[in-house]
Design goal:
single chain, alpha+beta, nine-stranded antiparallel β-sheet, 16% helix, GH, glycosidase, Glyco_hydro_35_CS, Galactose-bd-like_sf, Beta-galactosidase
């Protein structure tokens, strides 16, 4: 592979002029059996490069534990990109934002009450060095200087929007160099943050979604004469629960792309293909109000969540043909989809009855945060005994992020961080009644100071003004549902309950799970975590990747936190429902 040079006013590869025509494609948001397909479609649109972040929190879920298997086999993804003739812009963070849980930073960093993320705090830097020492040797042979596809590596991510400590960026750059990264380094920032986020000796790049000439002018003012790259050209946007599905007109985005490229700049489309925040991996924002991101990361991108070309794909293909080598092959067609089917749930397993197979309770005087329990994703069930019968007012220090409250197994209300709720009143039927709070981590904040986002029930917890002590905290990561005690049920069962049904597949293909009438929870197919469902919307379906299915019988499991509808059915359809595009 040729080596990228950033000296002078334009990029060159082995001395020849080169324009980076890249698109975001995050391997961890795509089923690994679809990697080759998505990479091929990137080339067929006219891209010569793809960009990917690296999620530290998935690759190192615990200190000393490393995962590079299955859907986290980054070296295999890079090899597939090379086989398709594509270059790669690698963005290893350690912070990546990406609307990803915690911005990619592992939750175990938060076990240190004094940690300062994205800083020169010794504990943080020690953890980063351990991570880079594990990650970078695995990608070193894929660098362009050694014949691989990786043209350049990013230092941190939009640091200028968070801080201005150049010494921190320099330390990270030094780690990259120490562990073998000898291709060009780059930073990326929005136009107003360029001066704070740039690093001497690294290429500065700019992020924007419109007003290309102004954005490029800000970059040229900071670094006159350097090659110009828009490292994130925002061609769509992400969705949050309770909002609308955000879309951007294809022709408008194509005009802006044409303007950017006509100015002589290179580009990375954010996103070319968004993919899915499978399981519990979505992030959140908190600018005075907590706003969790939905499971789908469709992003109104050129490839939709199922990897099918959209109007934006074809509009961008026409623009890119003006600035890069022509693509002889025709544009790809949509992939086959599973025929419509109805799934009947015939078995159920109440969560509160199956606790022994889901986790081990930890006793303490106060409720323990999720991070103190060594847990990253899922739920925590808190339990205490109420000393007296009668009216009760429960006050909590904070809920992160949503608590269902039960007394002797009966629901008495919900506390939501998003609604700034911290108190709940109820009647205690007897002395010794059992109080339980099922707290859901709806996604750690991925942007801004809110990154220090510890999950669970935070004390003190007051009952009628006096501190309530003597708690057990039960981690419920829901990694493995294989030991649940499902039994046949004829009618609806009050939640929280796991519901299970089977359906037959002749030939596996992509589908979308629709759950009309259901309220909130999670879904799995054959143990593969599809993500969260919530009637709040806008997202009203979950993407089911074809490789997660198998010929013959398949198993669908849905956790419903509230009451399942009387019909207890779900629909598998060949099309998604991403929700309304207007408020």
């Amino acid at each position: 592979m040729p080596v990228l040079d950033t000296d002078g006013g334009e990029f060159t590869l082995d001395g020849a002029p080169f324009r980076i025509l890249s698109g975001g494609l995050h391997y961890f948001r795509i089923h690994p059996d679809h990697w080759a397909d998505r990479l091929r479609k990137a080339r067929l649109m006219g891209l010569n490069t793809v960009e990917t972040y690296v999620p530290w929190n998935l690759h190192q879920p615990r200190p000393g534990e490393l995962r590079f298997d299955g859907g986290l086999d980054l070296p295999a993804f890079l090899d597939l990109a090379a086989a398709e003739g594509l270059h790669v812009l690698l963005r290893p963070g350690p912070y990546i934002c990406a609307e990803w849980e915690g911005g990619g930073l592992p939750s175990w960093l938060l076990t240190d009450p004094d940690v300062r993320l994205r800083s020169n705090h010794p504990g943080y830097l020690h953890a980063v060095e351990g991570w880079f020492s594990a990650l970078l040797p695995k990608v070193a042979d894929r660098l362009a200087t050694r014949g691989g596809p990786v043209l350049a590596v990013q230092v941190e991510n939009e640091y200028g929007a968070y801080g201005d400590d150049t010494s921190h960026l320099a330390h990270l750059a030094g780690l990259l160099r120490r562990y073998g990264v000898d291709v060009p380094l780059f930073t990326c920032d929005q136009p107003g943050d360029l001066a704070r986020g740039a690093l001497p000796g690294a290429l500065a790049t700019v992020n924007f979604g419109s007003r290309a000439r102004q954005g490029l002018a800000a970059l040229d003012e900071l670094r006159p004469g350097q090659p110009k790259l828009c490292a994130e050209f925002w061609i769509g946007w992400f969705d949050r629960w309770g909002g609308r599905h955000v879309v951007r007109d294809a022709e408008d985005a194509a005009r802006e792309l044409d303007e950017l490229l006509a100015a002589g700049a290179s580009v990375n489309l954010y996103m070319f293909h968004g993919g899915t925040n499978f399981g519990f991996t979505n992030g959140a924002n908190d600018k005075h109000t907590y706003r969790p991101t939905v499971t789908g990361y469709d992003y109104d991108a050129p490839l939709d969540e199922a990897g099918d070309p959209t109007a934006k794909y074809h509009a961008f293909r026409e623009v890119l043909a003006k600035y890069g080598p022509p693509v002889a092959d025709p544009a790809p067609a949509a992939a086959p989809k599973l025929p419509a089917a109805t799934v009947q749930f015939t078995e159920s397993a109440p969560l509160l009855a199956d606790l022994p197979v889901l986790g081990t309770p930890v006793p303490a005087l106060r409720p323990l945060a999720m991070e103190e329990l060594g847990q990253d994703f899922g739920f925590v069930l808190y339990k205490a005994v109420l000393p007296a019968a009668g009216p009760a007012l429960l006050e909590v220090g904070a809920v992160a992020d949503r608590a269902q409250v039960f007394v002797d197994g009966q629901p008495v209300g919900v506390l939501e961080r998003e609604r700034h709720e911290r108190t709940i009143a109820f009647h205690v039927p007897r002395a010794g009644a059992v109080l339980r709070l099922l707290v859901e981590n709806q996604g750690r904040v991925n942007y801004g100071e809110g990154l220090h986002d510890r999950k669970g029930l935070h004390g003190p917890v007051l009952l009628n003004g006096a501190e309530l002590t003597g708690w057990t905290s039960l981690p419920l990561p829901l990694h493995d549902l294989g030991e649940l005690s499902f039994t046949g049920t004829a009618g609806p069962v009050p939640g929280p309950v796991f519901h299970r049904g089977t359906f037959h597949v002749d030939e596996p293909a992509d589908a979308f799970l629709h759950l009309p009438g259901w309220t909130k929870g999670n879904a799995w197919v054959n143990g593969f975590p599809l993500g969260r469902h919530w009637s709040r919307g806008p997202q009203r379906s979950l993407y089911v990747p074809g490789p997660a299915l198998r010929p013959g019988p398949n198993e669908l499991t849905v956790l419903e936190l509230h009451a399942a509808p009387s019909h207890r059915t779900a629909r598998l359809l060949p099309h998604p429902d991403l929700g309304p595009t207007e408020e």
